[in-house]
Amino acid sequence: MRRQRGGSATVSAAGPVADALTLEGVSREYRRGTVALHPVDLTVPRGRLLAVMGPSGSGKSTLLQCAAGLDRPTAGTVRIGGTELASLKETALTRLRRERIGFVFQAHNLVPSLSVAENVALPLLLGGAPPDGRAARALAAVGLGERGEDRPAELSGGQAQRVAIARALVTEPDIVFADEPTGALDPATAQDVLALLRQAVDRDGHTVVMVTHDPVAAAWADQALFLARGRTVGWLDRPGADEVRRVMRDLGRDAGEGTQLAVREEGWGA
Ligand code: ADP
Ligand code: MG
């Protein structure tokens, strides 16, 4: 089931290629001093699948939202494909989110009144792109090339999530963020969706950051990052489900400061 990771393409004929995502000292404090995220450093090279794990309330969604330009961090720098988000005005940020970031949520968030093909094409249409073959190709790539005329309500949960993945990939984004993409699926369907994300990375060179609390899902990643109480507490390379389960159990037992876990202290690019 596992595959060999392709080489990380950091240099092309055109010169060095920026990492898909870089966070430097990114923190998020809410009003009244709630620190949802203590300063975190994180680099995700292109062509990787990162799992972000941690107990409920550990800051996973906060990290994802800051990284994806949906929330502004209190401090620190976020770069998507080399572009610093803080340097962008609201309209440019909106455009970057639409064209260079793909999103997959737990609920697939398809528009019920649009056809499957129209849903996939939506990020292109919103950007004013003329109709072309990209949506059809993206739909075919997730194995649903024949379902373009259907409405989302006619699809199973797993199929709808595949459409959501096609929509996330249609613009060939720098990075795809997925927040519990298998959280609403049965285990067999979840495996299909994870295999699809894995294929997007291995076959097509996409980059995915996936928040999950499921050790089986994390085992599809190249690397797992663990958060506890808003802090990065460690990393695992090529995580196995049992290993991840053990770390999560330790985190659940004592998420306090100074927790010693059998994980590395640094991730990629450290
Ligand atoms: P996770 O996704 O790991 O469950 P979150 O990132 O959603 O965790 O939340 C991290 C912490 O930040 C939690 O303590 C949560 O209560 C707090 N938090 C999240 N969003 C807000 C908000 N808008 N205002 C205040 N506190 C928040
Ligand atoms: Mg969350």
Task: Describe this entry's structure for a reader.
The structure is a single chain. The chain has 270 residues and is α/β, with parallel strands linked by helices. It has one domain: Rossmann fold. Helices cover 31% and strands 23% of the residues. The protein contains 8 helices and 12 strands. It has helices at residues 60-67, 90-100, 116-126, 134-141, 157-169, 187-202, 215-218, 241-253; strands at residues 11-12, 15-16, 21-29, 35-44, 49-53, 75-80, 83-84, 101-104, 175-179, 208-211, 223-228, 231-237. Strands 8-9-10-5-11-12 form a 6-stranded mixed beta sheet, with helices on both faces. It has a 4-stranded antiparallel beta sheet with strand order 4-3-6-7. The chain is globular and about 50 Å long. It starts with 10 loop residues before the first strand and ends in a 17-residue tail after the last helix. Mean pLDDT is 89; it is low at 1-9. The structure holds adenosine-5'-diphosphate and magnesium ion. Residues 30, 34, 36, 54, 56-62 line the site of adenosine-5'-diphosphate (ADP).
Helix and strand layout, with pairings?
Elements: E1 11-12, E2 15-16, E3 21-29, E4 35-44, E5 49-53, H1 60-67, E6 75-80, E7 83-84, H2 90-100, E8 101-104, H3 116-126, H4 134-141, H5 157-169, E9 175-179, H6 187-202, E10 208-211, H7 215-218, E11 223-228, E12 231-237, H8 241-253
Parallel strand pairs: 5-10, 5-11, 8-9, 9-10
Antiparallel strand pairs: 1-2, 3-4, 3-6, 6-7, 11-12
Adenosine-5'-diphosphate binds near residues 57 and 60.
